[in-house]
Amino acid sequence: MQAWVMLGLAGVAEIGWVIGLKYSEGFTRIWWSSFTIVSLLVSMVLLGLAVKTLPIGTAYAVWTGIGAVGAAIAGLFLFGESANAVRLACIVMIVAGVVGLKLATPS
């Protein structure tokens, strides 16, 4: 279970660096650039620790799924991106895939 927690935290850190990347404006804003780099490092370290126990394919798919869904939701709320039905349905499908991988992988 500890590996899944680390993987979840790695996914949250991935959301952080993606948001930071947008706010860093091409790494021209020092504080957001620093936040982005630190979040990326935290995300990678936690992913690396999680894959010591979890299958790499599952861990990577879940990690990117958490990041993709989090970035898409952040885009809706922070950056005013489109919330049309097709986009929301695709986000739901990503969540379903992540949940499915979790359920199909032994702890």
TrEMBL record:
<dbReference type="GO" id="GO:1990961">
    <property type="term" value="P:xenobiotic detoxification by transmembrane export across the plasma membrane"/>
</dbReference>
<keyword id="KW-1003">Cell membrane</keyword>
<feature type="transmembrane region" description="Helical">
    <location>
        <begin position="30"/>
        <end position="51"/>
    </location>
</feature>
<keyword id="KW-0812">Transmembrane</keyword>
<dbReference type="InterPro" id="IPR037185">
    <property type="entry name" value="EmrE-like"/>
</dbReference>
<dbReference type="InterPro" id="IPR000390">
    <property type="entry name" value="Small_drug/metabolite_transptr"/>
</dbReference>
<feature type="transmembrane region" description="Helical">
    <location>
        <begin position="85"/>
        <end position="104"/>
    </location>
</feature>
<dbReference type="InterPro" id="IPR045324">
    <property type="entry name" value="Small_multidrug_res"/>
</dbReference>
<feature type="transmembrane region" description="Helical">
    <location>
        <begin position="58"/>
        <end position="79"/>
    </location>
</feature>
<comment type="similarity">
    <text>Belongs to the drug/metabolite transporter (DMT) superfamily. Small multidrug resistance (SMR) (TC 2.A.7.1) family. Gdx/SugE subfamily.</text>
</comment>
<keyword id="KW-1133">Transmembrane helix</keyword>
<keyword id="KW-0472">Membrane</keyword>
<dbReference type="Pfam" id="PF00893">
    <property type="entry name" value="Multi_Drug_Res"/>
</dbReference>
<dbReference type="GO" id="GO:0005886">
    <property type="term" value="C:plasma membrane"/>
</dbReference>
<keyword id="KW-0813">Transport</keyword>
<dbReference type="GO" id="GO:0022857">
    <property type="term" value="F:transmembrane transporter activity"/>
</dbReference>
<protein>
    <recommendedName>
        <fullName>Guanidinium exporter</fullName>
    </recommendedName>
</protein>
